[in-house]
Amino acid sequence: MDKILVLIEHRDAQILDHNLGALGFATQCARRWNADVCALILSNNPLALSSKLASKKINEIVHVQHEILKNYTLDGYTAVLRQWIEKNSPKMVVFSHTSIGWDVGPSLAASFQAGIVTDISALAFEGSEPIFSRQVYNGKLVEKVKIKKAPYFVTVERGGFASVEEGGAPQVQSFDVSLDNVQFRTEFIGVEVAQKAAVDLAKSNIIVAGGRGVGKKENFHVIEDLAHALGGDFAASRPVVDNEWVERDRQVGSSGKTVAPKLYLACGISGAIQHLSGMKKSNVIVAINKDPHAPIFGVAHFGIVGDLFEIVPALIEEAKSQGIAHR
Amino acid sequence: MNIVVCVKAVPDMESDFKIGSDRRNIENSHIVFKMNSFDEYAVEAALQLKEKFSGEVLIVSIGGEETKQVMRKAFAMGADRGILVNDSHCNDSDAIVVSKLLKAALLDFPYDLILTGVQAEDDTQSQVGPLLASALNIPHVTVVTHLETTDGKALQVKRELEGGAFEVVKLKAPALLTIQTGINNPRYPSLPGIMKAKKKEIKELTLSSLNLSPQNVGARGSLVERVSLEEPKVQSQAEILQGSAKEIARELLSKLKERKVF
User: Fold this and answer.
1) Which residues fall within 8 angstroms of residue A311, CB to CB, at 6 or more apart?
2) Which residues of A touch B245 (CB under 8 A)?
3) Which range marks the domain in which residue A66 is found?
4) Per-residue pLDDT tens over the stretch B52-110
5) A185/B172 CB distance under 8 A
6) What is the ipTM of this complex?
7) A148 and A23 in a common domain
8) What domains can be seen in chain B, in order of their start residue?
């Protein structure tokens, strides 16, 4: 039976939630091909991690135990995955589109003369051939791509696929590896957690966020003023933080905070996929943007197509006169 | 310290993108190309290392006229010269083929470090950097937000993880790093820089000068193939508010009250 390999990622002795979506993606393929989904856990202690997967509808959990696999290294992961792939010849190898998946996936695919498609957001089939959808041009268009022959290597968008179903009883197996001859060219020193934020955006009920459309640092106060007038907190998209208009701890998106407030008001944010993944679960989303085609309108409940420098001051004035912040 | 920076010319992301008649590419006629913004940070990082350790900054790319303009911008910032694979057979190459082309273009250059942007803004594959590193058999680190070296050989870098954490990694040159935005503030080209850029050399290479066959590049040589380009399915239920700014403000606040936000 064909196999589908899914690399399971972990940090701080926890399996990361996005793995469940990668497994969900794999089970869609497995159903089409009547294939087995095999979840590989590379760790110094895989047993402690695998309980989270013990009742998932997958076929195998494969433990690869080695002290050096406590933390991710390019050469360690490459060596293990290469050995497993050589032995099992999977039809597909699935990574999440993450700092591990995009780091190890492409070169591994190339070493097997296989094709790789990254950051997949949707899946379809033509017969048994998978067609992958992915966002391009800042989410303004979608491309459909295929890989001409198996094995298929992929990284899937974090949060892009429904979690794997419950109700399975996967077999747990061990896979012995030899890492004695591996040359480790990068050395893991440690993980630094971002500085403690002045504000915990995850606890905010109302967030007003500014993006590139704010134009310059001197303009950003309008975002802060609106947040204040609505009794909420202000936040920003990545370009704002990169330009140092706002501190990094206020960044919302896949490389910053994930939030789900009662109200998320996005001003001058086009809605790059990385930003959307950090806020699309908000209860009510309002978008103000000049570009009617901006992807942010795809997730918004209320949209205002126009100049934020006209709309935001009007909102501040109205909110103040209604005493919104004090309700 | 000799540093290679791989750059890509990409459409301005603010453009109004239209799907071309082949349904596989965008209409290019009205598109303005610019340097991939991630690559600007890579060029800046290279220039800062050159200022510290001396050496040469080589810009390498694949493309045509629009790419030459982008390379000239890197020259105006301070890069020394460029190599451009300019051959229409290379169109529609997948990332693995692109990495092979770049490897071939770099054959004679004694590099210590190769820098790329984390990803290209247009297709956001984040593949070419790691693929080029493995083709050259050098280590790579992706999503680098901090780079330290006292001798140009031993490198300590920080890479960005999900959720705002960073991983600290040590490695030795030669190596490839993919550079994340925010690592530095890319400089603007100076007027003297722009004048000098005009005289800097772009060595143009074709497939035959790289000893590569057209069969092994482009769509034919690639395993990944774009089937179609489509408008995103708009799932938006967004209610668009219209009127004067004041009317919109009032209407929005009353809608939000209905939704029990306030």
Assistant:
1) A288, A304, B245, B248, B249
2) 306, 310-311, 313-314
3) 3-174
4) 999 999 999 999 999 999 999 999 999 999 999 999 999 999 999 999 999 999 999 99
5) yes
6) 0.93
7) yes
8) 3-221 (3.40.50.620)
